[in-house]
Design brief:
eight-stranded mixed β-sheet, 280 residues, 9 helices, 8 strands, Spore Coat Polysaccharide Biosynthesis Protein SpsA, Chain A
Length: 280
């Protein structure tokens, strides 16, 4: 299957979750196994409802695994009670360290789940619905030339449409436009909801922390071409919004990830602005 993916440039393709009928996707599985992974840390308020919603997509989904990333609350307990397989990130591949971070939890999940197609979803979403799963899987199950799918959505902030995603709008998108213009059309580069073929994920690195989503996007495009990537409109996503002080480490990680991958020698020339004192 991997051999059909583009190795050059290409055009980013966009879908809507309503394009993918559940029964059609089940028929398109053709024996492939599908795993849903929830990296979670201290998500006791939302994780159980998400697990139950994912379980409602059986027989499309074959397993749901919660990777508990050092939670201090009962995330693992309620996730297991809801029907998920729960694995502590600290217990997976301990020879590679017991580090914290979403990226590490996602990477470790590859050695735990057995899916040919793997769906990652955030565990803090309050309005999670089954179309989050079907919308991400749709392009992979119906198109052999797509290897990686990002979700995108409307993200309100305190009930105000279009005000969420502050790090996305102020950091990630400008970085893509400047350093990776071929990816400027990605609506939600930091979306936690994504899906991919296992053979794609096994051929790219995972950033250990907050930069994992941007890193995967850039590295998949670099290795397989933009035409191997698709994005699906998932509607509205409501989750726990963080304060600006809590977002600062995330913004720094995004910058670090982008600059480590970007060719800064190819950046646009700086504009020289005269000193205002010279004209005084």
């Amino acid at each position: 299957m991997l051999g059909t993916l583009s190795q050059t440039g290409g055009v980013l393709r966009t879908f809507h979750f309503r394009e993918f009928d559940f029964d059609r996707l089940v028929a398109a599985k053709k024996g492939r196994r599908i795993s849903v992974v929830l990296p979670a840390r201290d998500e006791v308020a939302t994780v159980a409802a998400i697990v139950r919603t994912v379980l409602s997509t059986v027989p499309l989904v074959d397993e749901i695994v919660v990777i508990d990333d050092h939670s201090s609350d009962n995330t693992a307990v309620v996730a297991k009670a809801a029907g998920a397989t729960v694995v502590s990130a600290a217990d997976v591949l301990p020879e590679y360290g017991d580090g914290f971070g979403k990226g590490e939890a996602m990477w470790k999940s590859l050695s735990v789940v057995d899916g040919d197609l793997i769906v990652f979803c955030d565990a803090d979403v309050r309005n999670f619905a089954s179309h989050f799963v079907t919308g991400l899987l749709g392009p992979l199950l119906t198109r052999d030339d797509i290897g990686f799918v990002k979700g995108f959505y409307e993200r309100p902030l305190d009930g105000k449409p279009g005000e969420g995603g502050r790090v996305t709008e102020l950091v990630a998108k400008p970085l893509l436009a400047l350093l990776f213009p071929h990816l400027a059309g990605v609506a939600q580069p930091l979306a936690g909801e994504c899906a991919a073929r296992r053979e794609v994920l096994e051929r790219v690195p995972f950033v250990s922390g907050y930069g994992v989503e941007l890193g995967l996007l850039v590295d998949v495009a670099d290795r397989f071409g933009v035409s191997a990537i698709a994005q699906t409109d998932l509607g509205v996503r409501i989750h726990r919004n963080r304060s600006l002080s809590e977002l600062a480490p995330q913004a720094a990680a995004i910058l670090q990830t982008a600059l480590a991958r970007g060719d800064i020698d190819e950046r646009p020339p700086m504009i020289s602005v005269p000193d205002y004192r010279e004209s005084a």
